[in-house]
Amino acid sequence: MAGHRAQWKGFLKFGEVTAGVALYTAASTSDRITFNTINSATGNRVNRVFIDSETEKLVPKEAQTKGFEIENGQYLVIDPDEVSATIPESDKTLEIEAFIPCSDVDDVYFDKPYYLTPDRMGSDAFAALRDGMRKSKVAAIARTVLFRRMRTVLIRPHGKGLIATTLNYDYEVRSSAKAFEDMPKLEIEGEMLDLAKHIISTKKGTFDPATFDDRYEAALAELVKAKVEGKALPKRKKIEVSQPNDLLAALRESAGLLKAAETKPERTAANANAGTGRKRAARGAVGKSAASKTAPQRKAS
């Protein structure tokens, strides 16, 4: 991928076939607006330091180590070298263990997505795997050491390449049974169910990520721009909360007000680059403000 650095390089193995591959981050937060912690009295940036919880003295980096709490306030010290020794050895091979139906993995197990691309020498083998998986409508389960941990990876065809999604382990995913155990057992039927189905049918559409705007990022950019330019800060619009008498009345009202067909927002390049544009606009406002302060003032003749 031009302009991007591979997060991992190694080999993809299926059967006796091996292809050189690389992983690239598929999702990034680098275009989000971020803030630093500032000393409000001086305007200077605040640095993070580590303080001993008992002596309240500064702990230098060379004196810091790892510890596991075995009971309240009692820690078992673990040397960093001992931690390093537990890291599995990596042979840089993403070995496919099984091909499964694409729907077999519940997306609650999905962790992080990466684009999986071939190197020049492995393009034919890579393409054969990609096309074979697409024709067979299967995904692949593979395992390897990624970023110092043994990871399970779900591999699926994606455009011209493959997408590799790291998976959470079973112990990392909380039980849905516990999450829903307090929910009462209700079965909705009759007019209430018909109205709900009608509302759903009038709002059917397709997923297009370019039509969803990050309103929080937009609000932050507007706030930064207003403060730089010395303008009044944007005010939050008041939301009028409806007060329906009961659920059935609210469903009837919704069914009567919703249109049978919704017009989809048009996808534009501006929508796709909205996050980057806002961040650049906010920084641009800061730059213009700084330039205006340093520019020489022309005296009136």
From TrEMBL:
CDD domains: KU_like. SUPFAM superfamilies: SPOC domain-like. Signal peptide: none annotated. The keyword DNA damage applies. Keywords: DNA damage, DNA recombination, DNA repair, DNA-binding. Residues 259-301 are annotated as: Disordered. InterPro entries: DNA_bd_Ku70/Ku80 (IPR006164), Prok_Ku (IPR009187), SPOC-like_C_dom_sf (IPR016194). Residues 283-292 have a biased composition (Low complexity). One of its GO terms (molecular function) is double-stranded DNA binding. One of its GO terms (biological process) is double-strand break repair via nonhomologous end joining. The keyword DNA repair applies. Belongs to the prokaryotic Ku family. With LigD forms a non-homologous end joining (NHEJ) DNA repair enzyme, which repairs dsDNA breaks with reduced fidelity. Binds linear dsDNA with 5'- and 3'- overhangs but not closed circular dsDNA nor ssDNA. Recruits and stimulates the ligase activity of LigD. Homodimer. Interacts with LigD. This is Non-homologous end joining protein Ku. The gene is ku.
